[in-house]
Design brief:
The protein is α/β, with parallel strands linked by helices. The chain is built from ten helices and 16 strands. It has two domains: 255 residues, 4-Layer Sandwich (Metallo-beta-lactamase, Chain A), CATH 3.60.15.10; 36 residues, no CATH class. The longest helix has 11 residues.
Length: 308
């Protein structure tokens, strides 16, 4: 089952000609999940040739303009195709008011259900087949939340030779064992799944954190992520300014990644003060703490494979 993260934009505060606003699309098989969507989000979606009209759910970190102003356009364009599935929109308080007022003022034609849910406490906000998405609190100048998508454990490896040795013939009984059910062998013995299968295997974890000051609690939430997308808005020389504006430096982001023992971190939400060349300084600082850090760029794609 494929999982990929598409960086639609990596900039903070204002869009630049070469840097769209922070937004990430996560694709897990046929399901699409959008994390934030400032103005111009559609541009990267189209350039990546993604089926953005089939987005299942949108997860908003907070209601600052650079994270939400692209959402009304996406909603309206999604009405240009036949769609029966609902669009879920999650976010902190006022996201429902923003969506409703946008629909009213713009007189939107929407031909599918839109379900808006506000997040007021840490919770599992969205669930699907074999996974869930959890929201957790961050600390910014507005109420802000981070998100993790975590898959449930997968069954262990099936060993055909063990099944045959226990007189379970190849066929439907093997499928039942792999689904976790006991079966009766050809000699009448009950065979349990654990007799023919290895230990359960962990699923994958994706985490999205932006627009927050450094909090030790973040590492606990994103613990063990296969991919952490995390803001690193400033270099270390602007640590005081970052604290004042409730943002993180790249070193603080790397500290989160290190403490959370993540497999890879992508920095995002850069201050517009930095040119692409100057971003190398943020990367160098972050890698001094967490070597498996990369700079995200617009339309960069991250594959998130299983470990085994």
């Amino acid at each position: 089952m494929n999982m990929e993260a598409f960086i639609l934009g990596c900039g903070g505060m204002m869009p630049l000609p070469y840097r769209h606003l922070t937004s990430v699309l996560l694709r897990r098989e046929g399901e699409l999940f959008l994390f934030d969507g400032g103005e111009g989000t559609q541009v990267s979606l189209r350039r990546l040739n993604l089926k953005w009209k089939k987005i299942n759910a949108i997860f908003i970190s907070h209601t600052h303009a650079d994270h939400v102003t692209g959402i009304p356009g996406l909603m309206m364009l999604s009405s240009q195709v036949e769609r029966d599935e609902p669009l879920y929109i999650y976010g902190p308080p006022k996201i429902a008011e923003y969506i409703e007022s946008s629909r009213k003022v713009l007189d939107m034609y929407i031909n599918y259900p839109v379900i808006v849910k506000e997040i007021t406490a840490p919770c599992i906000c969205h669930e699907g087949d074999g996974f869930y998405i959890r929201a957790f609190p961050l600390q910014h100048t507005k109420i802000c939340v981070g998100y993790t998508l975590e898959e449930l454990d997968r069954p262990g490896q099936f060993f055909p030779e063990k099944a045959l040795a226990l007189n379970v013939p190849c066929g439907p009984l093997w499928s039942k064992l792999q689904a976790g059910n006991e079966v009766e062998s050809s000699d009448g013995t009950i065979v349990k799944p654990e007799q023919v299968m290895g230990e359960k295997r962990s699923g994958r974890k994706f985490s999205y954190v932006t627009d927050t000051m450094y909090l030790p609690s973040i590492a606990k939430e994103v613990q063990g992520s296969d991919l952490l997308i995390c803001e690193g808005m400033f270099s270390n020389e602007f640590e005081e300014q970052a604290k004042e504006k409730k943002h993180m430096t790249s070193i603080q982001a790397a500290t989160v990644a290190r403490d959370a023992n993540v497999k890879k971190m992508g920095l995002i939400h850069y201050s517009p003060r930095y040119t692409d060349y100057e971003l190398k300084n943020l990367l160098k600082e972050a890698q001094s703490i967490f070597p498996k850090t990369v700079l995200t760029k617009d339309r960069m794609i991250f594959e998130i494979p299983y470990e085994d």
